[in-house]
């Protein structure tokens, strides 16, 4: 759903309008989903809806797919796992339709649960694992192109990193900076989030809609049927429930 939602956004679609009325059967959402499903069915790998990040990395590294649309961290994964393929890879921002940018914003963060007895030690580890010293350690062992992207702004001012990761460093930073979770699509929406809706109900709703879209990609149902089912699932919640009121 992360990839599809970026397509929905740039087509001007949205999950809910400003009154929290579901919009999964609105023309922009339908148009975007048809475009995405047809693209994947015609040009994607068999069983595309079942492939995870690591499976796609393997397919790309083995030369079994020519184009991979995924998170910015994928560039580092290619560089470190398949260096020969990395040398032949180009990078581009996500394509757009009606919006200025299209992409998503997420973080694989390091968190410390409240109430743990060793939070001080955990904080020291988190501080070290996101420090310049850690960057230097990774660079010394694996090369500057392997340093985790998107962790420190200072990394993108480092001449050594700029040289080693010149194929993707600047475009990674631009992609991160252009993501706007408060204005993800063409018109105002009542929620925050680019490739997701930042409400508790979305954990269940997003899964339900994702399963329907997977069925459309597999050919077991049409896009219209999938989105009608998604619209019905979203309509089970009241505006007050969705808005937290």
SSE map:
Blueprint: H1 2-10, H2 27-43, H3 53-61, H4 74-81, H5 83-86, H6 119-129, H7 132-142, H8 159-164, H9 169-178, H10 202-218, H11 223-234, H12 239-243
Helix pairs in contact: 1-2, 2-10, 3-4, 10-11
Broad structural category? mainly alpha
The total of beta strands comes to 0
Strand fraction equals under 5%
End-to-end distance: 27 Å
Question: How would you sum up this structure, described in words?
Answer:
The longest helix has 17 residues, at 27-43. Helix 1 packs across helix 2 (27-43), helix 3 (53-61) crosses helix 4 and helix 10 runs antiparallel to helix 11. The chain has twelve helices and no strands. It is mostly helical and 245 residues long.
Tell me briefly what this model is.
The chain contains twelve helices and no strands. It is mainly alpha-helical and about 240 residues long.
Q: What key attributes describe this structure?
A:
single chain, 49% helix, 245 residues, 12 helices, mainly alpha
